[in-house]
Design goal:
Layout (H helix, E strand, L loop, with lengths): L7 H13 L6 H13 L12 H12 L5 H9 L2 H4 L4 H22 L11 H12 L2 H16 L6 H21 L3 H15 L1 H35 L5 E8 L2 H10 L11 E7 L2 H14 L1 E2 L5 E2 L12 E8 L2 E9 H9 L25 H16 L14 E5 L5 E5 L4 H8 L1 H5 L1 E6 L2 E3 L11 E5 L17 H18 L6
Parallel strand pairs: 2-6
Antiparallel strand pairs: 1-2, 3-5, 4-5, 5-6, 7-8, 9-10, 9-11
Helix pairs in contact: 1-3, 2-4, 3-4, 3-8, 4-6, 4-8, 6-8, 7-9, 8-10, 9-10, 10-11, 11-12, 16-18
The structure holds manganese (II) ion.
The site of manganese (II) ion has 4 residues, from loops.
Length: 497
C-alpha cells in the first residue's frame, strides 16, 4: 500500500525543528505523529476536522516557544491517553520516561475542572501548578488551550463560555505569574471575545480606527531610530519591531483612564532588541537625544526587575505634537524570557543543548518558589510518608472542602479518607458524601478538583468495618480500627479487627 503523503503542517514543523536543533534526530517526532494519527484514527473535532489536526497545531505552537524536542513530541501525543485506547505506559514504552511523564501531567490536568466559584480560583491555580510539577507541562497545556480557543466557535455556547472563562481566570493569571507575557496576552484576547462580547467589540473598533494613523507615524519613528543606531558602530541591533497592545490589556487600561483612548500612551510600543545590557542603556540615551522623554515614565527593570523576573528598559517620548510612543529596550535573552517565561533561557545552554529538565524551583520566580513551598507543606502534613522517596512527589490528588480549602490525598482516596483527614468525629459519623453536589457512595475514588461535602449523622454508632476494604490513607485505617476496637470493648460486640 502506498504511504499517505506527509501533511504540510508536519513538514513545516519538521523544518522548523531542524533549524532549531541542527543535527538532531527527528525520527521520534515523525514516529509520534504516526502514533498519534493512528491512535486518533476516525476521531473528529467538533468543527469536523480530523483530530490529528489539533495535535499538530499544538506541537507547532510549542515549536515556536523554544522548548526541547521531548515537549514537542509530548504535544503531538498529549490527548492520546485521555481520548484513545492507548495508555501512558504505551507511550513510555515507545517514547521514553520523559515524554510519558509530560503526557501524564497533561492527562492529570485534564481532570481539573473550573466551576466558576470565586473562592476556589486561587487554590485552583495553585493546584494546576502543583499537578503540573514541570513547567513544560504548563506550556503544553497553554499551547493546547490556545488552539482550543482559536477553534472555539465550533462549540456549544455554554461550553464556549466555560472554556473562555476558565482561560481568563485560571490560565492567564498563571501565565502572568510565570512571566509568559506573550501567552498571557493571547489567552486573554482569545477569551475576551467570548467573556465580554460588547466590550470586545468596542475595543477592537477603537483600535481599528486609532491605530492605522499611529502605525504610519510609527513606521517613520522606527526608520529614524534605525538610522541613528546604524550610525553608531558600537551597537548591534538584532531587531526593532512595533506592535499594538493586546486588546484585553488595552481594555483594562481604558477603564482606568475614563475610557479615553487619547490618554493611553502605549497603544503601540516599539521594542528594540540588542545584544547586551550596555547596549540597552546606550539605546536609551540615543532615544532621549532624538525625542524628549515624558517625566516619570522612564523605568529601569534591568537594574530592578519586576517580581516575576521581567527585565527591560521602558521610556515614553514625544515624537511629534501630541504624539507619544513607548519604547522597550532589552536583550535577546530578556525578550525570549518575556515571551515564554522560565522555559525560555534557562532551558538552553550556550550550545543550544537542553539543560537538565526544568523544575519550578528557580529562586528568581517568587511565586514558583511559593509553590515549591506549598508542595513541601502538603508533603509534610500528609501522613503516608512511608511511601515517600527522595525526589519523588507522591501521587497526589487535590480536592476542595466546601469552604474552598485544598486537601491533598493519595491517588484513589475516597470520601472516607477525606472525612478522617478533616476530623475523626466526621469520619466516625459519616454516612454519605456529596461530590460536586452529587450524592455518591462513600467508596467513590476522588479526582483532583472535586469538591467534597461529607454528610454526617450523629446517631451513627460506629464506622463500618467495610470501609477498611477501600480506604487509602493510614490515618483513616488506624482511626477506623481504633474506633471499632473501642466499640468492641464497650459493647463486646465485635471481634478485634
Ligand atoms: Mn488537546
Amino acid at each position: 500500500m502506498e504511504k499517505p503523503k506527509e501533511p504540510q503542517v508536519l513538514t513545516q514543523l519538521l523544518k522548523r525543528l531542524a533549524a532549531q536543533f541542527p543535527g538532531a534526530d527527528l525520527d521520534m517526532v515523525r514516529l509520534a505523529y504516526e502514533f498519534a494519527d493512528q491512535a486518533h484514527q476516525g476521531q473528529k473535532r467538533t468543527n469536523g476536522e480530523p483530530y490529528i489536526t489539533h495535535a499538530l497545531a499544538v506541537a507547532n505552537k510549542l515549536s515556536t516557544m523554544r522548548v526541547d524536542l521531548n515537549t514537542v513530541i509530548a504535544g503531538l501525543l498529549h490527548d492520546v491517553p485521555e481520548d484513545t485506547s492507548y495508555t501512558v505506559p504505551d507511550i513510555r514504552e515507545n517514547f521514553g520516561v520523559d515524554v510519558a511523564a509530560l503526557v501524564e501531567g497533561i492527562t492529570k490536568l485534564g481532570t481539573l475542572k473550573y466551576r466558576g466559584m470565586e473562592r476556589y480560583v486561587e487554590n485552583l491555580r495553585k493546584m494546576f501548578l502543583a499537578i503540573s510539577k514541570d513547567v513544560r507541562v504548563v506550556l503544553i497545556k497553554f499551547a493546547d488551550r490556545l488552539h482550543n480557543l482559536e477553534t472555539l466557535d465550533a462549540l456549544a455556547p455554554e461550553k464556549r463560555q466555560r472554556i473562555a472563562l476558565e482561560s481568563m481566570e485560571i490560565f492567564a493569571p498563571i501565565a502572568h505569574r510565570l512571566g509568559m507575557w506573550e501567552i498571557k496576552g493571547q489567552l486573554e484576547d482569545l477569551s475576551f471575545k467570548y467573556t465580554d462580547q460588547e466590550s470586545y467589540a468596542w475595543v477592537s473598533q477603537l483600535m481599528a480606527t486609532t491605530s492605522p494613523s499611529k502605525e504610519k507615524n510609527l513606521a517613520k519613528v522606527m526608520a529614524l531610530l534605525r538610522d541613528k543606531l546604524d550610525e553608531n558602530q558600537t551597537i548591534t541591533v538584532l531587531d526593532i519591531e512595533g506592535r499594538a497592545k493586546f486588546l484585553y490589556s488595552l481594555y483594562k487600561k481604558l477603564l482606568r483612564h475614563d475610557r479615553d483612548i487619547s490618554k493611553i500612551y502605549d497603544l503601540v510600543a516599539v521594542r528594540v532588541i540588542v545584544e547586551n545590557v550596555t547596549e540597552c542603556y546606550a539605546v536609551l540615551g540615543i532615544i532621549h537625544q532624538l525625542w524628549k522623554p515624558l517625566r516619570g515614565r522612564i523605568k529601569d527593570y534591568i537594574a530592578q526587575p519586576k517580581p516575576n523576573g521581567y527585565q527591560s528598559l521602558h521610556t515614553t517620548v514625544f515624537v511629534g505634537p501630541g504624539e507619544i510612543v513607548e519604547f522597550q529596550i532589552r536583550t535577546k535573552a530578556m525578550d525570549e524570557e518575556s515571551h515564554y517565561g522560565p522555559a525560555a533561557h534557562w532551558y538552553y545552554t550556550e550550545q543550544g543543548k537542553p539543560k537538565e529538565g526544568i523544575k519550578m524551583n528557580s529562586p528568581r520566580y517568587a511565586w514558583v518558589t511559593e509553590l515549591v513551598k506549598l508542595q513541601k507543606e502538603i508533603r509534610d502534613t500528609t501522613e503516608y510518608l512511608e511511601h515517600l522517596k527522595i525526589d519523588v512527589f507522591p501521587e497526589n490528588i487535590f480536592v476542595f472542602t466546601p469552604g474552598g480549602d485544598v486537601i491533598a490525598l493519595p491517588d484513589q482516596a475516597t470520601p472516607v479518607d477525606f472525612a478522617y483527614h478533616i476530623h475523626s468525629d466526621i469520619g466516625n459519623h459519616c454516612v454519605a458524601a456529596r461530590i460536586n453536589n452529587k450524592l455518591m457512595p462513600l467508596s467513590t475514588p476522588l479526582k483532583s478538583g472535586d469538591m467534597v461535602d461529607i454528610v454526617i449523622d450523629k446517631k451513627r454508632a460506629r464506622p463500618s468495618p467495610d470501609w477498611l476494604q477501600f480506604v487509602k490513607t493510614r490515618t483513616a485505617r488506624e482511626r477506623i480500627k481504633l474506633e471499632l476496637n473501642r466499640s468492641r470493648q464497650l459493647f463486646g460486640l465485635f471481634k478485634k479487627v
